[in-house]
Design a protein that fits this description.
Elements lengths: L13 H10 L28 E6 L2 E7 L7 E6 L13 E7 L14 E7 L4 E6 L11 E9 L12 E4 L3 E2 L2 E6 L9 E5 L5 E4 L5 E3 L3 E2 L5 E5 L4 E4 L12 E6 L12 H8 L21 E5 L11 H16 L4 E3 L8 E5 L7 E5 L16 E5 L6 H15 L26 H12 L9 E2 L1
Parallel strand pairs: 10-17, 18-19, 18-20, 20-22
Antiparallel strand pairs: 1-2, 2-3, 3-6, 4-5, 4-7, 7-8, 9-14, 10-13, 11-12, 11-15, 16-17, 16-23, 21-22
Helix pairs in contact: 3-4
The chain binds zinc ion (ZN).
The site of zinc ion (ZN) has 6 residues, from α4.
């Protein structure tokens, strides 16, 4: 028996890149936040490397460390002084005081200075954290801070030096998390990554989320933590002023290929050639814009005149639509409107072939968006069953399944022999997946 195959071109990808980049412009799946703008470091003279400043106040050296992720959040640390400044009166605590008008002093104490807290004395070292909800803390404000010993009645002693720093500014990321079906996903936690940090938002019932204020001047990447039913997603970096992200999660339940040791997403990526092509470190999923595909079927029989190939094509379309449970192909009488054109003529060396955009010079499966395909069955097919199996396999390719499975139980298997001819449960999942996952979905962004 002569070998058979489909015939995707493997020529260069360059011509298709422009079209693909255009695909990335908008919509679920193809949506991606823009790259972070050029963001400047805080400009206040007191800004310090690594968000840490130190200076001498009444209790000695005090260190203020700004939180790397949470805006307007900082930790004040100092050691128990070796000598007690208020002696002989007892030091009962330390007032952590800030002022946004100038250095903390006796003159400002009861006017513009905010005492954030009086920390009871008695430790060896102290570290206290304050945030945007602490009265007196103003995001983005130049701030002077002093740690001042106080006696029993809360009176400060002599107020000496202040430490100047800038409270970090914040920005909020607001967006939505939806499913690959477009449904809002509630209860999804979002973490900040880089630097790794815990949840900063949880989606509401309508899928919307709003993070706590994050330190401005840096782009942040978000990662979903959606549980076992979804492939989790990490966005591209998002900076202040960037468009609201819409994060589209892939339902992993329909993609559970029962292949031992084979990740279903990997399988999907191989068979569709999804991850063969990187565009600026992304691997966007290319597929048909919409289903069902319009199929034009030309009249034809096999060479012996015993098999009506056009009739078989119609029957296999109906068979596969029913097996998938969704209308993926529909016949059209208008050849010029057809996305799939079924033809019958001799293909040297093969019994079946599906060609992508046959009028283009170098279309590449996995990269070139499909405009139309030509499904050819060679009249050399001898039997009706052979024709049915051939159509099943080639119709699978017309869904933009550009490659083959390595599992001989799969309809989409091919290794130079005769493939099984009937779709397995995996093939049906594959067909549903390629018709469901949004175009432009970035394979690289999804994690198990
Ligand atoms: Zn094939």
């Amino acid at each position: 028996m002569r070998p058979r195959r489909h015939g995707p071109s493997r020529a260069g990808a360059a011509g298709a890149l422009l079209a693909l980049l255009a695909l990335l412009a908008g919509g679920c799946g193809r949506q991606d936040p823009v790259a972070p703008p050029g963001v400047a470091a805080p400009t206040a003279a007191t800004a310090a490397v690594d968000g840490k400043v130190s200076g001498r106040t009444d209790v000695g050296i005090v260190i203020v460390t700004s939180h790397p992720v949470l805006a307007a959040t900082f930790t004040v640390a100092w050691d128990e002084p070796a000598s007690l400044p208020l002696a002989p009166r007892p030091v009962t605590g330390y007032a952590v005081a800030i002022d946004t008008t100038g250095p903390v002093s006796a003159a400002t104490w009861r006017r513009t200075t905010h005492v954030l807290e009086i920390v009871p004395a008695g430790g060896r070292g102290y570290a206290r954290t304050y945030g945007p909800d602490t009265p007196g803390v103003v995001a983005g404000a130049p701030t002077w801070l002093a740690v001042v010993p106080v006696s029993g009645n809360g009176d400060p002693g002599e107020i000496g030096g202040s430490l100047a720093f800038r409270v970090t500014d914040g920005f909020v990321i607001a967006g939505r998390v939806i499913s690959d079906q477009g449904e809002p996903l509630g209860g999804v936690d979002l973490d900040v990554v880089s630097p790794a940090f815990g949840p900063v938002a949880t989606t509401g019932a309508d899928g919307s989320f709003r993070t706590v204020p994050l330190v401005a001047g840096h782009a942040r990447a978000l990662r979903t933590r959606s549980g076992a039913d979804w492939y989790d997603y990490a966005t591209l970096p998002i900076g202040a002023g960037d468009p609201s992200p819409v994060i589209c999660l892939l339902d992993r339940r329909p993609l559970q290929f029962p292949l031992e040791g084979v990740d279903s997403k990997l399988f999907l990526g191989v068979v569709t050639r999804w991850f063969y092509h990187n565009v600026d470190a992304t691997r966007p999923f290319v597929r048909w814009e919409a289903f069902p595909l319009r199929v034009h079927i030309a009249a034809g029989t096999n060479a012996a005149g015993t098999v009506d190939l056009a009739a078989i094509a119609r029957e296999q379309i109906a068979f596969l639509n029913a097996a998938v449970g969704r209308e993926l192909w529909v016949e059209t009488a208008d050849s010029t409107q057809a996305q799939v054109r079924v033809r019958s003529y001799t293909i040297p060396g093969f019994l079946g072939q599906t060609a992508l955009n046959p009028d283009e010079p170098h279309p590449v499966w996995g990269t070139t968006p499909p405009r139309w395909m030509r499904l050819v069955v060679d009249p050399a097919v001898a039997t009706e069953q052979q024709a049915r199996y051939l159509f099943n396999h080639e119709l699978g390719h017309t869904l933009y399944v550009g490659s083959h499975s390595t599992n001989p139980n799969h309809l989409m298997w091919y290794q130079g022999g005769v493939s099984p001819g009937l779709p397995s449960a995996d093939d049906l999942r594959l067909f549903r997946a390629v018709a469901t996952i949004p175009a432009g979905t970035d394979y690289n962004r999804y994690e198990d």
